[in-house]
Amino acid sequence: MSARPCPVSIVSGQSWGWFYPVSGRRGAILCGPNGYEALCSHRQWTRLASELAEAGIPTLRFDYPGCGDALDDDEMPERVRAWLDGIHDAVAFMRQQSGIEEIALIGLRLGGILALAAAQELARRNKAVDALVLLAAPASGAAYVKELRMLSMMAKARRPDAASDAPGIEAAGFHYTPETIAELKSLNPVAEDIVPAQSVLVLDREDSVSGLADQFRKKGIAVTSAPFAGYARLMNDAALSQYPTEDFDRIVDWLRPEETLTKRIAPPSGTHVIGIPRGTETPIWIEGATPLFGVFSEPTQAAPHRSAVLILNTGANHHIGTNRMSVSIARRLIAEGIAVLRIDAGGVGESPSVPGRPDNAFAREDMIADARRAVDWLAGRGYQDITLNGLCSGAWLCFQTALAEPRVTGQILLNLQGLWQSASLARTMESNRKYLRLLRQARTWRRLFKGEIDVKGIAVVLSLRLREAVLVGTKRVFGGFAGTETIERKTKRQMKALAARGVNTSFVYVAADRGLDELELHFGRLGEALHAEANVHFTIIEEGDHLFSMKRSRDRLIELMATQFSAGRFVPTHTIKKDSQSQRSSVSRQESMISRVAINDQ
Known about the structure:
Blueprint lengths: L7 E5 L2 E6 L5 E6 L4 H19 L4 E4 L16 H17 L6 E7 L1 H15 L6 E5 L5 H18 L10 E3 L2 E3 L1 H8 L13 E6 L7 H7 L3 E6 L3 H4 L10 H11 L18 E3 L2 E8 L5 E8 L7 E5 L13 H9 L5 E5 L23 H13 L5 E7 L1 H12 L3 E7 L17 H8 L2 H8 L5 H24 L8 H14 L3 E7 L3 H10 L12 E6 L9 H13 L1 E2 L2 E2 L12 H18 L2
Parallel strand pairs: 3-4, 3-5, 5-6, 6-9, 9-10, 14-15, 14-16, 16-17, 17-18, 18-19
Antiparallel strand pairs: 1-2, 2-4, 7-8, 11-12, 12-13, 13-15, 20-21
């Protein structure tokens, strides 16, 4: 079998695009979903682009402005208008490519309604596209907003104390401003009399029929419709998302040209760098048996020390991070003169599959080698102070890489879980500290009397945690007599080894995170057994959840990270130290200090 077509990066409007330059008369533009759904489907979406190109269809995929790797953020004005303009830019690019005579827009979820609206705008200008593919598209922008509200309300019902005060809607970690919501509500392209394309393929969710196919038929448009059988498998967490083979094969067959040309279009020339405030961003490839993709953010004015931060994947989410947080961190840090590299480990995001490793895997020992290759790439460009950053499983990979890689000088570990082997900590429930806080709130008791709290489930979880605490305590007491190294001793030895190399380690936890339970299970209240170790720093952020899905908590974290660099070097300032007085008063002062940190971060 011949090698799959390789995409090349291009600058498309305010963002990069990925163009698959095969020769063919019919080109396809992928208009992706938005927010959490974009994270879920990213790798499968890239595979669809590859499959289309392999079938002889030149294909372009891109990020909308304020999304993915593109410029701007959730707060940008006239955001929906910018998304539509992004599709227009993509169409213009495709029409400039030699040999492309027909263009199809393929839209998934919100991308479907945007593709339809953009197609109608083009038709009004006598520049209509030739085909539309709408995948689980909502019937209108208003219908999509209703889904966002329901998602937000479900999150608030599960975590009433984490309700956002940001104006607009926060849904699954993404913020939609009142202006964006108003723009979305105004999108009702199916009501227009304009014919968007001569042929349309509609794949509807089996549990929600949009009615779009019937509306098109009434306008005399040739419509092919079918259920989107693999939708639920596709729109799963990135680590669990599955390629909907039958559905996406239907798209490829529907668009496949009558004959496939073997000659390829010449890749477009020009810059692949995007200018951002106070710096530039460039897509890069780290060479190796399996190349690794990354985005390098370089400040216009570097800090006195050649310092860089390497951000690793959270779970199987690609290099933009959960809630697009890695992008926000990178762009905040370059304002401090710090370069940032965000990479995809092998088999994650844009990086090719690794033989013997499943795609969308995370927290594996063999990924340490990927992280070390990224460190090597930075060191090869003269960066001497290299700090690792990761959230959850990404933090685990940071810690393991720091132990193995002598060129690492710092690490910022966010809501670290799994380092101390607490797999049975019943992580499906809230943290111990969260339960204690809830017990002090009147609304908890009101919910209890209404039968809205799973008392039995919570009791089972807490009993499991108590049993584990007893087991850990027993191993701690008797492990040394058996001649084995306990987890606590191993961690202290590792921290001392890192400190001997001058590595600064900053643990950052949200107060309600279950990773803090794990830390305290092994190292006492607020991890006090580690406080005496050199270069170990702790910060507790009072508000937020594990993935920093609340905008307020996320913004606080990003500012906290920026303050931990001084003159370009990673020098954490929030340190909890153990003093010579009683343990009880020490803990009290530690908690007081944590509160001050949280307040100062606001």
